[in-house]
Structures are given as structure tokens and as C-alpha cells.
Amino acid sequence: MDSRSHTHVTAALRLCLHALLTGLLALVAVRAVGEGAPHAGAVVALTLVTAGAYAAGALAGTGALAASVRQGALAASVRPGTKAAATWLAALGTLWLALLALSPDALWVAFPLYFLQLHLLPTRWGVPAVAVTAVAAITSFVAHRQEIAPGAFIGPLLGAAVAIATVLGYDALFRESERRRELIVELVATRAELAEAERTAGTLAERERLAREIHDTLAQGLSSIQLLLRAAERTLPEDAPAAAHVRAAREAAQANLAEARSFVRALTPPDLEHGSLAAALERLCARTTGPDLSVRFAVSGTPVELPTPYEVALLRTAQSALANTVRHARAGRAEITLSFMDTSVALDVVDDGRGFDPSGAPVDERGDGGFGLPAMRSRAATLGGTLSVESAPGQGTALAVTLPLAGRPRDRERAA
Questions:
Q1: In this predicted model, what pLDDT tens digit does every residue of 230-266 receive, in sequence order?
Q2: CB of 389 closer than 8 Å to CB of 355
Q3: Phi, psi at residue 32, to the nearest 5°?
């Protein structure tokens, strides 16, 4: 960023500079006419030409004074450090030297020229240009007055020093302001990162608390139930009618105990530990049974490796949706489709059951364990995805969850 970038303050200063230069040129013309100078006509003509050249450069490319003010009074074609700016300054300097040769009062125009040179030229050229302008002003004064006086040197040199100190000081302040602004931006970003870290720490602490609670209550209870059922199973004859029910109850307790321990260890669900998500979904469909219910599984697109949170979310959604189908839908056919696309992965669960009204469904009507749609939607939203449900009484249900895959290698290659 250029240190002389336009701001409201600098725009106001430039307007003052324009007024100063215009006023000084007018003073030169008025004094030449009022005092009856020998070359009064030429002086007036040169002041008008100089004013016109200055206005042309200041307004170049804008066509209107208002537009030039909005752009800091120097248009796009006359910007600091450009050839157009150097050419414009050279033209103004030439006209000023001609005016200086005709009128001693033109000396005062050197002061606004100082600021223009320092503003439009790089520092390594601006300072020498100011020095040359000061020397020209002093030489003109001595030539017109035919005397050497301290004021002839002090005035132009003091004005040049003030101009250099003002412009360079402003540049230094502007750079310091920019550094502080960048520090403030970094500070705000750091505070946001700190807040996010605190939220993450709070989430992890809550997960640890839940893990302890699950271990101390649910997992221990399931372990006791499993042991009691195993003992009951041993006491029953293998051909007893209740033996099969006890065995099924023990296996269910054992599976849920494995789930509870998996949660405590923050590992993936057992169904994902020994295979892919597609294999886990296929096994889920195979073991899902119900009165006259047929469940099919299909994969669409080219499978890719998914992050563990994605696999867990999709598997849990499928489990919950199929549980709803078995318990509530009275469906004869259900289908799960896992679709891999360029920028997302989607899971669709469709059944031909009795359907329901999603807008009026109770929180736990379509859910497993009392969570239902809000839990599925929250799980998807946590990963930046969406959940949609289409259903109506008597028309079946279609549930779809979509998760973004912005970090895939294929996307990075395309971005490159």
C-alpha cells in the first residue's frame, strides 16, 4: 500500500493546497496589473495558463471536480510515482520558471510546488526537486531585487524545510498507523482463535465428563446385565424356548457394551473398526429385519476415504433412520444409497412406509433413543452438512444427509 493513500484528511489538505496555489497565482496576476508592471499582460496570460495546466492535471480522467475530490483531487492518470505525475510536474515547473522570470511575486508559488513535488515524486527525487525549486526562487528574488538579503534565503529554505518535514512526518505517521491497524487485525483474529480454542477445550472437557459418566454407569450396568444373562443362559437347557431370548438379550447387551466402551475410548463404532463405511452399511442392511421388510444397499460414484467423523455421522444416521423404519413406518421396502460426488458425500434412506408430516412430528417420533431428526440434523450441521426430509402421510419417507468434501486431493489439484 502506498504511504500516500487517500484519506479524508489528505483529501482536505489537498483541497487547501489547490486553494493556496490558485490564490497565489491570482495574487501574482492582480499585483502585476495593479502595479502596472512592464509585462503585466504576459504575467496574466502565464498565470492563466499555469492555472489551466494545474487544473487539467488535477482533474485528468475525472471530468468533474466532485469526482476528483472523491479520488483525493488527483486522478488515476496523475498518481504518485508515475510518469504522468513527473510530466505534469515538469510542465508546471517550466511555466512557473517563465512566470518567475517576469514577476518576483511568483516566488511564493514555490511553497505549494514543494508539497506537490514531495507528494508525487519518490522521496529520492522529491527532496532534490524541492531543493532545485528553492534555489530557483532565491535566484529569482536576487535577480529582481538586485540585492542579497537574508530574507531571500531564509524564506524559500525555511518553506522547503517545513514542507519536507511535514510530508515525511506524515508518511511516517501513516506507516505507523498502518502497522497498528494490522496489529489490531491480528489481535482480533487471535482473540477469535483463542475463543475457538476455549470452546474446543470446553467441548473436550464435557466429552471427558460424559465418558466418565458412561463408564461408571451405563458401561458398568451393561456389563452386569451381560454377566447375569450369561449365567441365566447356562442354567437353561439349550432347547428351552427362553434360551433363544436370553441369548439374544445377552448379545444385545454385549453389543451395546462394546458401543459404550468405544465412546469412552473415543474410538470409532465397532462396525467401522474392521472395514469401510460401505461394508458397515451393507452389514447394517443385512441384519435389519422387520415384518415383511426388505432392505437394500447401493453405492453410487467412486468411493473415497472419508474422515472418521464423517463415517460415524453417516453410519449413525443410517442406524437411526432404519430403526425408525422398523418401528414406525410399517414399510415393505427400504433402500440406503451412499453417493460419492466431486465435492460432497450423501446418504439417502428411502422407504415406502406410511410416512408422516415432518413439520408436525414429535421430537422422538422419527428418532432412536428419543433424539430423532434434531439429533441427525445437529450431527450433520456439526460437519458443515445438511439434512433434508421429504415425507407425507401414506407416501413413504426420504431422508438425505449431505456432507461437504472441500478438502479432497482432487479439489486441491483443480484449485492449483
A1: 888 888 887 777 878 888 888 888 888 777 766 655 5
A2: no
A3: -65, -40
